[in-house]
Amino acid sequence: MTGQASGQSRYGAGRKSPLGLGGTVAVHALVIGAFLLLPKEVIDTFSPSPPITGVNIPIEPPPPLDPVDDVKPDPKLPTQPQPQPERPTALDPLVNMPTGDTSLIGSNGHGDIGPTTPPYIPPPPPLSEPVLTEASIDPRAKAAFQPDYPGTMIRQGVEGAVTVRVTISPEGRVTAIEKVSATDESFWLATQRHALRTWRFRPATRDGVAIISTKTLTVRFTLTDR
Predict the structure, then answer these.
(1) Within a domain: residue 204?
(2) Which residue range is the domain that position 138 belongs to?
(3) Which residues contact 6 (CB under 8 A, 6 or more apart)?
(4) Which of 10, 78, 83, 178 lies 20 to 30 Å (CA to CA) from residue 154?
């Protein structure tokens, strides 16, 4: 009995119920009816679209660049000098200061620095004026100072005078004579010859040292002296 019961339950599961078959048919009928009731526009949207075909558009090459002429510098034009790079300037070497006590000692004992007075520098002594003395006739030669009277002037009875400028050396001699004025040429020649040969002077001095000097003299020729 057990075998029969199990056989009935195994094969009984394969038998279909009339109610299940009816439900299945009803569901399919509803699906088909709903599809038939859809609008035509909705149905058309499911039509496949035509395939898209791509076309390669050729890219035109860029236009050629204009040729560039080489520009050569004009030799006649002055060229600007190239700026020279600045050379680093040498720095002064550092000087090591001596180490030690660098404190300042003030005059009032508190470290304050009072006003400093510059040292007194005496002015230089004034330049003394040099002591000058003029040349004078040597008394020892004064007796022979008068030139000889020209003979022609004695015979003609003519008197005259000669003014001369003489240069006197440190030794007191006449080294040069110049005529300033003369009454007659014979008076001048007699005076010139006599001065260079006979005249003696005490030379001029500067601070006691004999120097060269000049002196202007007038020699008179009178007949009363003859």
Answers:
(1) yes
(2) 134-221
(3) none
(4) 178
